[in-house]
Amino acid sequence: MxxxxxxSLAREAILMVLLLAGPSxxxxxxxxLAISVFQATTxxxxxxxxxxxxxxxxxxxxxxxxxxxxxxxxxxAARLFEQIPxxxx
Length: 89
Description:
The chain has one domain. The protein is 91% helix and 0% strand. The chain is built from 3 helices and no strands. The protein starts with a helix and ends with a helix.
């Protein structure tokens, strides 16, 4: 395995992780911002109001995008397994 191939695989893996984590992180950020604005306007400073909706939103996002995320992960793993003979040389 050459250094360029190793760097290419690492870059592709990092991009895949960002692609897989992106939807959940964006939803958590948007819900967190909305909850912060709500807490600032109503002056309610309860910590449960900040965490519970964010966790529920992330779980719903993961449930909705599970098929797409699984497909991306499966395609990446299949490409890695197909490249094993070239990597061993």
